[in-house]
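Subject: Sanity check before I submit

Could someone independently write out the structure tokens for this chain? I want to compare against mine line by line before I put it in a report. The sequence has 443 residues.
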Amino acid sequence: MAGEATGTSLAGTPGDIPHNALMSEANSPRPSAMALQGVRVLDLSRVLAGPWCTQTLADLGADVIKVERPPKGGHPGGDDTRGWGPPYLKDRDGQDTAEAAYYLGANRNKRSIGVDIASPKGQDLIRELARRADVVVENYKVGDLTRYGLNAPALLALNPRLVFCSVTGFGQTGPYRDRAGYDYAVQGLGGLMSVTGEADALPGGGPQKVGVAVADLFTGMYATVAILAALRHRDATGEGQVVDMALLDTQVAMLANLGANYLTTGQAPRRMGNAHQNIVPYQVFQASDGHLIVAVGNDGQFVKFCELLGVPELARDPRYATNAQRVRHREALVPLLAERIAARPRQHWLDAMEAAKVPGGAINDLAEVFEDPQVRHRGMVVPMAHPLSDGLRVVASPMKLSATPVAYRLPPPLLGQHTDEVLAELGHGPEAIAAWREEGVIA
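---
Independent answer below. Compare away.
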């Protein structure tokens, strides 16, 4: 905001602008201390990986301005996920709004402006915002922003302190750079589906994707870490930089121990259903009335587990006494354990395992998850006021910071909800804003 107590103007260079200049205090109340308070993020991303990154930055206090395309030519405009429903948020009369639950899950604490970046004036507005930003996050196809003069070299020339993060399917280099990237395809290409699901020979066997878009989500989180590292470097040196994030790179990295298994042995791991490649017993078992998870992580826990099952002799059997031996003889051991577990109800075993400090747990559906006393105690559901509804609840951030806690300042914005506010902060008057809206430059 021009003319705050500092008397500074938004017309200056990035270094001249107060850190809170693009934060509307009237509409965005903040606690006195947030970890990223004063960081300005220009969000040119949509769908999930990019918005997940920018939502995380926003939760930590950054002022995130989400740029969305205005309605045009019959297209409703906005982030694609606004229409990815049902389900949709219900209004105060119980009717569906145009706000899909998918969109609501990745866009809180942001301000939305509608700008047509295909238009010269829209491009000028993006440049104005980039001059005053600390971070730009975008997930356009490789080369798309170059056509508009909004690519990394162009914006870094305007603002050398800028951290410019690109999120794509395959990165800015390499033979696949021009391909569109989607989480589902990357889960397959990056090997995750080759190790997820039951073995081919078993009922229901075959490759299986993970139930949520983990390549997108992990890429968003890795992008967040990389941006924070780049900001620290910028603060130390004054130099911005480019962050090149790829879904495929992230998917390969998150293979973790299975990737290490292959690189160590030269043998590709296969699907093992709910069993662990390197630990036994570490899988789902069937009790008399349902399923439970057993997650024995060391030999001492295995001794306790055998005792509560009533088969202490198994822990003394040299075939099963160590984890390495249990992995080698899992085909003989697991049926013996399964027979014992099947004889009693699930809760019997869960109580016994908790008393013996043997790791494991129930398999909850989402209704059970959000009623779980630990989940409720940790405040993992947050109600938020919304312009269209009194019933918005969001899944909370898992980040618990003692001195700079996450704050839920803004509900996921309506398309273009903050256009006038943000442009006014840039110094543009109502007449200019009205003219651009009439021309279709903004929404």
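---
OP: Matches mine. For the report I'm noting this point. The first helix runs from residue 49 to 59.
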